[in-house]
Specification:
Elements lengths: L1 E5 L13 H19 L4 E7 L13 E11 L3 E10 L9 E12 L11 H7 L13
Antiparallel strand pairs: 1-3, 2-5, 3-4, 4-5
Length: 138
């Protein structure tokens, strides 16, 4: 899944660069959207980001490109690789400014972990074909 975000003045820190908390929020939100599109109607919460390392500074007016791919389906959780790049920049500045793995877990109405649908149900949930189901881990 691809998405974009424009860096506005309210996203900047006191040095004039993108505040890292905004980027983390956007990454979390975009991973959640991917999970919700892959499994409509299910509840997910974020449980982990594997690494937080800001590789490049980002200024006001930058358009960020977010590329999100599902990399793992577990018994109750999903993991997405999220890579962020600046758009409209000449190479080599088109390297990722941020990348991480985001793991979300399915929860019920009480906030308790609950299993994901079986493979057949997952195929139905991903009927649009944008994210074909992966084999489930044991």
């Amino acid at each position: 899944m691809e998405n974009h975000k424009l860096v506005l003045p309210e996203h900047l820190n006191h040095f004039g660069f993108l505040f890292g908390g905004h980027l983390l929020c956007w990454v979390d939100e975009i991973a959640w959207i991917a999970a919700s599109l892959d499994f409509p109607g299910l509840r997910f919460v974020t449980v982990a980001m594997d690494r937080v390392e800001f590789r490049r500074s980002i200024r006001e007016g930058t358009i960020l490109h977010f590329d999100t791919n599902r990399v793992r389906i577990g018994h109750t959780s999903l993991t997405y690789a999220v890579e962020v790049r600046r758009t409209g920049q000449p190479l080599p500045d088109h390297e990722p400014v941020f990348r991480t793995l985001v793991t979300l877990v399915r929860v019920d109405e009480q906030g308790q972990k609950t299993p994901l649908p079986t493979s057949a149900e997952a195929e139905f949930a991903s009927a649009d074909g944008s994210h074909p189901p992966l084999p489930q881990d044991s």
